[in-house]
Amino acid sequence: MKDLLSDFIAAVDSESLDSFEAALRAFKKLKEVKANDNVEISFVVKTIKPIGLAVGERLAAKPKSRMAWLKKLVADDKAATRCLACIVLGEIGKAAPDSVVATAHKLATDSRWEVRECIANAFDDQIGLTQPEFVYNLMKQWVADPSPNTRRVPTNALMRYGIKQPRKVIALMDKLRRDESEYVRKNVKFCLQQIAKEKHPILGPGQADNPDVMLATLTEWAKDTNKHNRWIVAGTLGNVWAKGRVLQAINILATLAADDDKLVRGAVATATRELAKFDAEVVTAAANAWAADSNPNVQQTGALVLKKLK
User: Fold this and answer.
1) What is the residue-level pLDDT of the chain in tens, covering all 310 positions?
2) Domain range annotation of the chain
3) 280-285: long-range pairs with CB below 8 Å, 24+
4) How far, in Å, CA of 118 to CA of 175, rounded?
5) HEC string of the chain?
6) How far is CA 11 from its chain centroid?
7) How far, in Å, CA of 137 to CA of 133, rounded?
8) Number of other CB atoms surrounding residue 160 within 10 Å
9) Taking the model in full, what pTM does it have?
């Protein structure tokens, strides 16, 4: 790994495309790359990311050659190489964000989910550090993109931004919460769970009222007739961010316990079980009340919660 990293660095520093291609050939001989199987997160963290950061940082200072070298990585047939391209792009984008938009869009529509994950993370973890408003404004455009793969990017690319600016990111998630793609909707839920926190172990400190902002949002969204939206509301509530507001969360879930859709009721039961980790007394009391309700859907939800609590 150290030799490979040194070869990449030497190639960029000397601006030798031949040396760069030689280093790339060596990279592609690694068993994790050659097989073109799943790109494991451990391989991304231990191997791809250090190379990508080093190459990207150096290419960012070479405006005449950087895009040609980046496009060579993007066009490669190995998913791991295209993941490497995402991290290189992230470093270039920190210095020249406009220059990487078209290439980033291509990576966002990649056939491999690992590549799509890496490009979303490049916006959140790299470009967003120096160009937060640029990333936000670009994601405002991408939420309306024809491709669900591209529409999904804002859900991950704005978490670091969203924990500090939850209202702005919630407004974008509002445009995606009824999306026709389940892939997009699931990631909307994940994004909301992260930006609702007062403090995140990776994203850093948020605002003290983040949980209350999210509760107010979900209270309104719970009134929506779209079943997919109600599933998002229920799922978002079943998370550690609501641990200090279990009663408020249960009150919202109570409005969904009668839902006609079985998946929504299942999401309510799962979320309620998660909340029991933080306040078992409140959750158990709610579940018992639901189980005795006159509405059969509420009864079923209550019984399911009680079963999960055993």
Assistant:
1) 678 999 999 999 999 999 999 999 999 999 999 999 999 999 999 999 999 999 999 999 999 889 999 999 999 999 999 999 999 999 999 999 999 999 999 999 999 999 999 999 999 999 999 999 999 999 999 999 999 999 999 999 999 999 999 999 999 999 999 999 999 999 999 999 999 999 999 898 998 999 999 999 999 999 998 999 999 999 999 999 999 999 999 999 999 999 999 999 999 999 999 999 999 999 999 999 999 999 999 999 999 999 888 7
2) 1-128, 158-310
3) 280/309, 282/246, 282/247, 282/250, 283/246, 283/250, 283/309, 284/309
4) 23
5) CHHHHHHHHHHHHHCCHHHHHHHHHHHHCCHHHHCCCCCCHHHHHHHHHHHHHHHHHHHCCCCCCHHHHHHHHHCCCCHHHHHHHHHHHHHHHHHCHHHHHHHHHHHHCCCCHHHHHHHHHHHHHHHHHHCHHHHHHHHHHHCCCCCHHHHHHHHHHCHHHHCCCHHHHHHHHCCCCCCCCHHHHHHHHHHHHHHCCCEECCCEECCCCHHHHHHHHHHHHCCCCCHHHHHHHHHHHCCHHHCCCHHHHHHHHHHHCCCCCHHHHHHHHHHHHHHCCCCHHHHHHHHHHHHCCCCHHHHHHHHHHHHHHC
6) 33
7) 6
8) 23
9) 0.91
Q: What tokens does 70 get?
A: 């980046």
158-310 CATH choice from 1.25.40.290, 3.40.50.920, 3.40.50.1950, 3.40.50.720: 1.25.40.290
Tokens of 290: 């639901």
